From TrEMBL:
<keyword id="KW-0964">Secreted</keyword>
<dbReference type="GO" id="GO:0008201">
    <property type="term" value="F:heparin binding"/>
</dbReference>
<dbReference type="GO" id="GO:0005102">
    <property type="term" value="F:signaling receptor binding"/>
</dbReference>
<feature type="region of interest" description="Disordered">
    <location>
        <begin position="174"/>
        <end position="243"/>
    </location>
</feature>
<dbReference type="GO" id="GO:0016055">
    <property type="term" value="P:Wnt signaling pathway"/>
</dbReference>
<keyword id="KW-0732">Signal</keyword>
<comment type="similarity">
    <text>Belongs to the R-spondin family.</text>
</comment>
<dbReference type="InterPro" id="IPR006212">
    <property type="entry name" value="Furin_repeat"/>
</dbReference>
<protein>
    <recommendedName>
        <fullName>R-spondin-3</fullName>
    </recommendedName>
</protein>
<keyword id="KW-0716">Sensory transduction</keyword>
<comment type="subunit">
    <text>Interacts with the extracellular domain of FZD8 and LRP6. It however does not form a ternary complex with FZD8 and LRP6. Interacts with WNT1. Binds heparin. Interacts with LGR4, LGR5 and LGR6.</text>
</comment>
<keyword id="KW-0358">Heparin-binding</keyword>
<dbReference type="GO" id="GO:2000052">
    <property type="term" value="P:positive regulation of non-canonical Wnt signaling pathway"/>
</dbReference>
<feature type="domain" description="Spondin-like TSP1">
    <location>
        <begin position="116"/>
        <end position="170"/>
    </location>
</feature>
<keyword id="KW-0879">Wnt signaling pathway</keyword>
<dbReference type="InterPro" id="IPR051514">
    <property type="entry name" value="R-spondin"/>
</dbReference>
<keyword id="KW-0677">Repeat</keyword>
Length: 243
């Protein structure tokens, strides 16, 4: 072993030197050179830093730099995130998206253009005027639809979601609010009143009949019995001439 090479290293190094840092790494770790001013220091990391991608070899695992316009990459020719001012498309960083695609400033990617989609129209509403459905001849009816897919920046804008048209209805009077309920209540009270009246009359009739019966019974008790009328034949019987 060279005198400047040490095997009792810190930070995951298998071998190292006082001047160059890590010279080799322990298994599974990646070796990468970090620049400090004019000097490069070798370090061993569990994963490659931003702007680098890892490659594994039988003897050593290394971190290599991505392309200049790429922030993170899987390989040198396949970028996964671009630097500011570039848009990611199929692993490449582009200043302008291809035809048929649009730049998404939120994800910094080239994405497909999305057009607006709307649902089918609903049935026409009842004919109304000033919120009422009666008391007029000409009014308006409306129908609506919903947006099921909002467009992207370059997509086709959404159409109107409501339509209105004139309508004609058979003119009819408006029933006052609560009138129907009031009429039902009045009819119920009237029916109850008539029923109560009939009940009172029937009770009064029964009481009158009972009173008349009691009066007749009392009269029969106090009036003397009438003598029996004599038999006419007995009154006309001949006198006894023997005397």
């Amino acid at each position: 072993v060279h005198p400047n090479v040490s095997q009792g290293c810190q930070g995951g190094c298998a071998t190292c030197s006082d001047y160059n840092g890590c010279l080799s790494c322990k298994p599974r770790l990646f070796f990468v050179l970090e620049r400090i001013g004019m000097k490069q220091i070798g370090v061993c990391l569990s994963s490659c830093p931003s702007g680098y991608y890892g490659t594994r070899y039988p003897d050593i695992n290394k971190c290599a730099k991505c392309k200049a316009d790429c922030d993170t990459c899987f390989t040198r020719n396949f970028c996964t995130k671009c630097k500011s001012g570039f848009y990611l498309y199929s692993g490449k960083c582009l200043e302008k998206c291809p035809e048929g695609l649009e730049a998404n400033n939120h994800t910094m990617e080239c994405t497909s253009i999305v057009h607006c989609e709307a649902s089918e129209w609903s049935p026409w509403s009842p004919c109304t005027k000033k919120g009422k459905t009666c008391g007029f001849k000409r009014g308006n009816e409306v129908r609506v639809r919903e947006i099921v897919q909002h467009p992207s920046a370059r997509g086709t804008p959404c159409p109107a979601t409501s339509e209105s048209r004139k309508c004609i209805v058979q003119r009819k009077r408006c029933q006052k609010e609560g009138k129907g309920k009031k009429n039902r209540e009045e009819r119920r009270k009237k029916a109850n009143k008539e029923e109560s009246k009939e009940t009172r009359q029937e009770s009064k009739g029964r009481a009158g009949r009972r009173q008349n019966r009691e009066q007749r019974e009392n009269t029969n008790k106090t009036q003397p019995k009438k003598r029996k009328a004599p038999n006419k034949e007995e009154d006309l019987a001949p006198l006894d001439t023997a005397h």
